[in-house]
Design a protein that fits this description.
With 439 residues, the protein is α/β, with parallel strands linked by helices. It has 14 helices and 17 strands. Helices cover 41% and strands 20% of the residues.
């Protein structure tokens, strides 16, 4: 994709308007922002029939266009899923306000006081594929944290995104908030132009393919927060409870296979493999999971009368986002860790074991934003962590890391108040000492 370095005047005006509206939002007290969140939830409930109809039209068009199965799964928004999204908005309303928190309150000298206080980032640019529910999560978190947000959904979800944005604007207007704090873009050209608005946009959050995230990172000077692949693993240790391990494996693969926290590879210790696979293979196949396995797993399955497809080297590095699971036997926890750190995407990894020391080694040495013991990787989620929702998952080393909720949408400011103090007093031969006393 070639990139033009001239943004459209219309998009520049839109971003300027969003920035002004965001500053007004940031100045509002907590109660007003919470009232706006409650109003958004009510407006979404009222508009539910229109939203579901718009999504049905998107889904019909997606089927006709041959949209990939994982993307279709993320696109579909039924009444139950919409109700859950609205419940998430109300959860955001109940969360503590992340703005105005005093992190440091320190006397530098008598009458000279420094405070570090949290404040909004400003304007977020969020680009996502397929999932219309992400729009609602992101908008509610932005409003709660006093930020403006410019959203760009995938073209396959354009009707859904437009219907959701109309409802959000109605909710904001009813609460007396400028609806320009939440903006929606609909064209590919606007996506490219958005990446150039470093004067008005403070953070870009891309949610899409690995190639798309790299494209964003390479074509903007705006800071980028996001993750690309979600190649997650479950390691079944030699000391695992087999029934527990089978249940976790089935859930982590089939609960929502198109989610980025679903497992793509199952690693099994060779000592427990015959016993585990005897139960796991039929349990997974009953859920229509296609298994692609290494030679040793194939051999064990054959002794049990089951023929499995042989995995290729590419399978260990693939995010299927579908009912496909690669399976490999390992000889030790160290081999499992080495495999995960080679092929994993630093998203979420899990171990099933009754051996506390083995679990400790695994959790200390695996490089990922989330490392779980005896539970499904599907718990790696902002809503399930109690964040209300998430703007995305960050797999970078620098914070925020993992599911990014409200705390990832604020920065901080140093405020210093004096009484005519000057720096010269504290330098030279007669320099006065600072007190540096925490208040």
């Amino acid at each position: 994709m070639t990139v033009s370095h001239i943004s459209t005047p219309d998009l520049t005006d839109l971003a300027q308007h969003t920035r002004v509206a965001a500053r007004s939002l940031a100045a509002l007290p907590t109660a007003d922002r919470n009232r706006a969140i409650a109003s958004i939830a009510q407006a979404l409930e009222t508009a539910a029939p229109q939203i579901l109809a718009a999504n049905a039209a998107d889904c019909e068009a997606a089927i006709a266009a041959g949209l990939a199965k994982p993307l279709y799964g993320r696109l579909k928004l039924d009444a139950t899923k919409l109700a859950g999204v609205i419940a998430g908005v109300r959860d955001v309303e109940r969360l503590p306000d992340p703005v105005g928190t005093v992190q440091i309150h320190r006397e530098l000298d008598q009458g000279l006081v420094m405070t570090r206080i949290t404040c909004p980032l400003g304007v977020l640019g969020v680009i996502f594929e397929s999932r219309p529910d992400a729009l609602v999560q992101i908008a509610s978190l932005a409003v709660k944290s006093g930020n403006g947000v410019i959203l760009k959904g995938g073209r396959e979800a354009v009707r859904s995104c437009e219907a959701l944005t109309r409802a959000i604007h109605q909710g904001l207007e009813a609460a007396g908030i400028d609806p320009a704090v939440v903006q929606l873009l609909t064209t590919r050209e606007e996506t490219v132009a958005l990446l150039q608005l470093d004067q008005y946009v403070d953070l870009i959050i891309p949610r899409g393919s690995n190639a798309f995230v790299r494209f964003v990172q390479q074509n903007t000077t705006i800071p980028v927060l996001g993750h690309a692949d979600g190649i997650c693993h479950l390691y079944v240790d030699r000391a695992a409870d087999v029934e527990q391990a089978v249940a976790i494996a089935v859930d982590a693969k089939t609960n929502y296979p198109s989610a980025c926290n679903a497992i793509e590879t199952l690693l099994v210790h060779e000592a427990i493999a015959p016993q585990f696979l005897q139960q796991a293979i039929p349990a997974l196949q009953a859920q229509q999971v296609e298994l692609r396995t290494d030679v040793r797993t194939c051999a064990i399955a054959a002794t049990q009368g089951v023929t499995l497809a042989t995995a290729t080297a590419a399978d260990w590095a693939t995010e299927y986002s579908d009912l496909i699971l690669a399976v490999k036997l390992v000889d030790s926890v160290e081999e499992a860790i080495a495999h995960i750190n080679t092929y994993g995407s630093r998203h979420t990894e899990a171990i099933v074991t009754a051996d506390a020391q083995t679990a400790k080694i695994f959790m200390a040495q695996v490089d990922a934003a989330g490392v779980f013991h005896n539970c499904s990787t599907r718990f790696s989620d902002g809503f399930r962590y109690g964040f209300g929702a998430e703007v995305g998952i960050s797999t970078q080393k620098m914070p925020p890391r993992g599911p990014v909720g409200l705390e990832g949408l604020v920065t901080y400011q140093y405020q210093v108040v004096g009484q005519g103090h000057i720096a010269a007093t504290y330098s030279g031969d007669q320099a006065k000492a600072f007190t540096h006393r925490d208040l």
